[in-house]
Each structure stands twice: as C-alpha cells, then as structure tokens.
Amino acid sequence: MSADLVLFTAMAPRTRRPQGEVTRGTTAPNRLRRVDRWIAATQRAALRAADRPLAVDLGYGASPVTAVELYTRLRAVAPGLEVTGLEIEPDRVARGTAFLAASGDAYPGLAFRRGGFELPVDRPPVLVRAFNVLRQYDEDAAWRAWDDLRARLHPGGVLVEGTCDEIGRRAVWVALGPEGPRTVTFAARVDALDRPSGFAERLPKTLIHRNVPGERVHAFLAEFDRCWAAAAPHSAFGPRARWAEAVALLARTQPVLARPPLGGRARRRLGEVSVPWRALAP
C-alpha cells in the first residue's frame, strides 16, 4: 500500500453514514459545461498528477448526466482518468448504477457510489468537483467543508467548488489546492448578462454574505459594473467584445489582478475571468 493511500485511509472517518445533507438534486444536460471546459483547459497538471488519477463528482444530483459529461470531457485530455460520482441519496446512486449497466462497457473507469464529504474512495482524488452542493450550508459549515475536502486531495490535486443557475448560463467557482483557495472564476453566457454584479447570487457560500460595503468582493463587483458600463461602445462588435474590454479595463484598475487577467484572451472570449482569491478574500 502506498504512503498516500495509508494516509488517506487513516484520515477517512470511521462511519457508514455519509457526511453532508441531501441536495435538491436539480440537474440537466450541459448545466456544468462551463466549469468542465475550464477544468479540462486549465487543470491538466492536476488531472495527470497521479499514476492512477481519480476525479470525484460530489453531489451530482438526481440524474447521473453531469457525472457522465465530466467523465467524457476530462478523458479527452487525461485518457487514464477514472471518475466516481458520489451521492448521499441511495436512489440517485441506483440510477447511476443502472445507467452504467445499460451502457455496457462504454464508460470504463466510471462508477457511482454512496458518499459525502468523507469521500469514500480508494485513493486521494486529483480532482473533486462539488457544484451546487454547499448552497444550503451556512458560511462556517462551507469553510469546514472546504477544509475537509482539501485535506483529502492528492498533493497535486484540486478542489473546484461553485454554483450555477439552472441552465448553466451563469456560474462562479473557486479552485482550491491542498494549501487553500487559489482563484475565483466568473463565467457567463455574456449575451444574457445584464451586468457583472448579477454574479452576486452565484457567489460561493464563503463569500455570498460578504457582498456588502467594506468587503473586497463587494468592491470588486462594483468596479466590474463600472468597467462594464464603460465598455458599452464595444457592444457594436458583439457581447464578447464588450466582455473582453470590460475585463481589460478591470485589470488596469485592480492592481491585485494578474496582467493580463488570469486565463488570457482565449478564456475571456468564452465569457470567463479568473482572479486571485486574495482579490476577494474576506
């Protein structure tokens, strides 16, 4: 048994009851496409950090569809990656298992099992995606969940935790390594975006109640709105052009942001911007 697995096994809670609360289970095809494509494009080092890399889709919902999509999208850049979908509700696990049984051998390395924040898997995952899971928790519980999940990652792994709207047009997520939060990413279908402060309702639970005057996240969204308004003339070239100009203006007015903004032009054209956690941290 490897040293990593010995440590991981020792850390696992000695209980059969999954840790966490059952979510509403709302899901739909392509709801998480924005975060999936971001993971595939920016987290390849993490996905390949282990000899037998494992990704966990934590709280995938009433349908296994988003776990299957995660598997398909990430295997395109990390062919040996295995994916385990974890759910607290036994009926949801049964649906995933039935899907695999009906699919024959179409998804080697994909599995579904019952579990929660304790991550009942056989080795430290290189990725944990937890989307629309912590919305029902209070801020203190969300911080504890982050700590628990980070502690169970592979040393080269990443936790991606966030939330999106019902059809995936607007999303915010945080990328965390074993050491702590790294970046916050805002992603939207920009032709449906009224103004950047509309992201406020999708902020992670560790930040959503901090969106008040005097907090960094509030100042950031207010400045993003100002830059969005200033970039309005670029709408003549389409909503993506306006988004790109607003992000460029934001980078010039916010010294804490990377220059160019994290992710560069390619990510901006997809309606994304990632900023360092320290830019928004409470």
TrEMBL record:
Q: Which domain of life is it from?
A: Bacteria
Q: Which InterPro entries match?
A: SAM-dependent_MTases_sf (IPR029063)
The protein's name in its UniProt record: Class I SAM-dependent methyltransferase
**Species annotation:** Actinomadura rubteroloni
